[in-house]
TrEMBL record:
It is an enzyme of class 3 (hydrolase). This is Ubiquitin carboxyl-terminal hydrolase. InterPro entries: Papain-like_cys_pep_sf, Peptidase_C19, Peptidase_C19_UCH, UBA, UBA-like_sf, Ubiquitinyl_hydrolase, UBP13_Znf-UBP_var, USP. It comes from Scophthalmus maximus. Substrate binds at W161, R173, R174, Y175, F176, Y211, Y213, D216.
């Protein structure tokens, strides 16, 4: 019995790890939900994988992995201070030096979300200081202790900097809100001219914050270890005890992100709580993401995929999983509890709508990964993020139900050559209607008077918001566009043509963007200050495309020039010359749902002339019997032949099988994604609908492929009546997409609700005339 107990204890100890530099410690957010140390029950951090789990999931993780040691972290708020407590949670309790080191390491480590914030923060890229290479350092005998620093002038113990020339230890600058220091380090530079200072408390083996007063910027010092050693500081033994300047920037920005700038003035907002009424924390300029995702998860197509979360396991990099996790967090009602009362600063009689809410840190990191804009903490355009997110949905839902189909529709463009009167019809896929704003159609006469006074230099001229009729915007959208440089295949020359745009199909949910953001004459981005009487109901039936008219002649199709030319041909592995295809265009077409081989042919037969020409080719050849057949070049074998079965990594196979999938399913996923594990995991979770019926043979081909059946060509679009009702809109406050704040209003059970990050309240006066993105749903006839 004692030997068995000792054996169990040793096996538990063998699984406990001490965090090392580079380990990702998830101590802010549960991997399977939005539980955090702030929630009831706290967070349990696995002392082997360093993944965090809420109380409802820790037993499940233990049952699946056998892990027994978890660090239980809870955080409570008392008089504006967060008190963090931690306890060892073991199915078998034990104590050892290794356990103590692991606990201390987890608590001291920066959390993954904190690390991501610092990595994503778009601060200035620091340059090497021009003073670093030849910095003068005085031999004055000054030695600086490794801790316990105070300002030599005022005894301040925070925001302490050491001058790298004379070793003087002084406090930093005073911030705009009165905090920080008393400017003694700056005054010392002004008196001595010694340029560089390092912030004590930020020194680690990896670097430190160095400021150049002469260059007035944060800088790099490649000789920092040498400069610190001059004053007795061993950089390799130092630990960070204060926030870096980047971390301070993030903290300031998050305070700004809590503005309650878009409120309904003159009304008392009643806080709301319950399923579908969960607020989202602002992670620093993340209000654009919060507003868009709140609206999307009111669409039934996005709600219906939440069952994924039941079948997913600990997958910290899966788009489908994190989308489902976010949806469950918003819709379940588990996280919409009121935030703790901050104390006596707020009037107790004033209702507060702030919630604990959820912090979508992992989700934001995933959807922004690799994107030049959404991977940063800068403010973004909500419309661009919506399209980016839909694009990710398209990539990850290649089979089965695809929620983005709710917004997908076909646009028909009719071009009429004015010289021959012959027409050309093309179709393209779209997800959003971009509505122009004809400023010359403003109905308020005081607008022109105010503009005249400003042009004359009258500083007292009032700011007047232009009032634009919605009907004028729709007229600008539907009126024919004049093309002055159109090449007509009928007359074999450039001439004038008219282009008319209509709906070839009407989606279940229609998104309308008001094109408020534009460029001034100096090419500086600006926002149009307009009020538009957007209607609650919309009938677009009159904009239905009619196709070719009786007796109407079509412009002749002219074969494009040959793609294979001496300057672009590439020798193929079989000895023939293969064309160079525009991979970008091929990828865009594939993401719309077209078969890969059809996309290649579209790009080839349109001579690499762009996405529009390739899309037109696809629309005109979708009914061809060989539409999905491989591209066959002149002089090449027409048979696809056979290719050797590609071997897959046994390690990757074992990883996917450990998630609960069969070996055949794992094999198919790896072969479909060129044996790349991350892509294979994404692929298998985006094909869950097909897994039960997936009959995979030894050759890695499904039964449908073995029988030669092709997937249905072309993007799937839904169609129905063009009558809609407004159910949500996203509003923006600020002068451009690069700054400001977003909120959204959503109609729930005939009641408008305002979602302003963590604040969720009943809306009394929804500002429907000031929206940026409007969301309509089809009205059933």
């Amino acid at each position: 019995s004692k030997l068995r107990g000792a054996s169990v204890l040793m096996s538990v100890l063998s699984t406990i790890r001490v965090p090392k530099p580079g380990d990702r410690v998830h101590k802010d957010e549960c991997a399977l939900s939005f539980s955090s140390p702030d929630n009831e029950g706290g967070l349990y951090v696995c002392m082997n994988s360093f993944l965090g789990f809420g109380s409802q999931y820790v037993d499940r993780h233990h049952a699946r992995t056998g892990q027994r040691a978890y660090l239980h972290i809870t955080r409570t708020q008392f008089h504006h201070e967060h008190l963090i407590s931690s306890n060892l949670f073991l199915l078998i309790y034990l104590q050892s030096l290794k356990v103590s080191l692991s606990m201390a390491g987890i608590m001291a480590a920066d959390s993954v979300s904190h690390t991501l914030q610092v990595q994503q923060w778009d601060g200035e890229v620091r340059q090497e200081s021009r003073h670093a290479a030849d910095l003068k350092q005085l031999d004055n005998g000054v030695k600086i202790p490794p801790s316990g620093w105070r300002c030599d002038v005022c005894d301040l113990q925070e925001n302490i900097w050491m001058n790298l020339t004379d070793g003087k230890v002084l406090c930093g600058r005073r911030y705009f809100d009165g905090t920080g220091g008393n400017n003694h380090a700056l005054l010392h530079f002004q008196q001595t001219g010694y340029p560089l200072a390092v912030k004590l408390g930020t020194i680690t083996p990896g670097g430190a914050d160095v400021y150049s007063y002469d260059e007035d910027d944060m800088v790099l010092d490649s000789k920092l270890p040498e400069h610190l050693a001059h004053f007795g500081i061993n950089m390799m033994t130092m630990e960070k005890t204060e926030r870096t300047m980047t971390e301070l920037e993030i903290a300031v920005n998050q305070r700004v992100g809590e503005w309650e700038v878009i409120q309904e003035s003159g009304t008392t907002l009643r806080p709301l709580f319950g399923p579908g009424l969960t607020g989202m924390k602002n992670l620093g300029n993340s209000c654009y993401l919060n507003s868009v995702m709140q609206v999307l998860f009111t669409v039934p197509d996005f709600q219906s995929k939440l069952w994924y979360i039941v079948r997913c396991v600990v997958m910290s990099a899966l788009f489908v999983y994190h989308r489902a996790k976010l949806g469950y967090g918003l819709l379940s009602g588990e996280y919409c509890k009121p935030a703790p009362d901050p104390g006596d600063e707020n009037d107790a009689s004033e209702p507060r709508g702030d919630q604990i809410g959820i912090a979508p840190q992992m989700f934001k990191a995933l959807v922004g990964r690799g994107h030049p804009e959404f991977s940063t903490n800068r403010q973004q355009d909500a419309q661009e993020f919506l399209l980016h997110f839909i694009n990710m949905v398209e990539r990850n839902c290649r089979s089965g139900a695809n929620p983005s189909e709710a917004f997908r529709f076909l646009v028909e463009e009719r071009i009429v050559c004015q010289e021959s009167q012959k027409a050309k019809y093309t179709q393209r896929v779209d997800y959003m209607v971009q509505l122009p704003v004809p400023m010359d159609q403003a109905t308020n006469t005081d607008l022109q008077e105010a503009e005249r006074r400003r042009e004359e230099g009258d500083s007292a001229a009032p700011t007047v918001r232009a009032q634009i009729p919605f009907t004028a915007c729709m007229a600008a959208l539907s009126e024919p566009e004049i093309l002055t440089d159109f090449w007509s295949s009928a007359v074999q020359a450039k001439t004038t043509a008219t282009k008319t745009t209509r709906f070839a199909s009407f989606p279940d949910h229609l998104v309308i963007q008001i094109k408020k953001f534009t460029f001034g004459l100096d090419w500086v981005p600006k926002k149009l200050d307009v009020s538009i009487d957007v209607p609650d109901t919309l009938d677009l039936s009159g904009l239905r495309a009619t196709g070719q008219q009786p007796g109407e002649e079509l412009l002749p199709e002219v074969a494009p020039p040959s793609l294979v030319t001496p300057d672009v041909e590439v020798k193929g592995i079989l000895g023939y010359h293969a064309p160079v295809l525009d991979d970008s265009t091929v990828s865009q077409l594939c993401e719309m749902g077209f078969p890969l081989e059809a996309c290649k042919k579209a790009v080839y037969y349109t001579g690499n002339t762009g996405i529009d020409a390739a899309m037109n080719w696809i629309m005109g050849h979708m009914d061809d019997p060989d539409f999905s057949a491989p591209l066959v070049l002149p002089g090449c074998s027409s048979g696809p032949g056979t290719t050797p079965t590609e071997s897959v990594s046994e390690e990757h196979l074992a990883t996917i099988v450990s998630m609960g999938f069969s070996r055949d399913q794992a094999t198919k996923a790896l072969r479909a994604t060129s044996n790349v594990l991350d892509r294979a995991v994404d692929w298998i979770f985006s094909h869950l609908d097909d897994l039960e019926s997936m009959d995979v043979s030894e050759g890695g081909r499904s039964a449908a492929e073995s029988e030669g059946r092709d997937p249905p060509p072309g993007p799937r679009v839904r169609d129905g009546p063009g009558k809609y009702e407004l159910f949500a809109f996203v509003s923006h406050m600020g002068t451009s997409t690069m700054c400001g704040h977003y909120v959204c209003h959503i109609k729930k059970d005939q009641q408008w609700v305002i979602f302003n990050d963590q604040k969720v309240c009943a809306s009394e006066k929804p500002p429907k005339d000031l929206g940026y993105l409007y969301f309509y749903r089809r009205v059933a006839e």
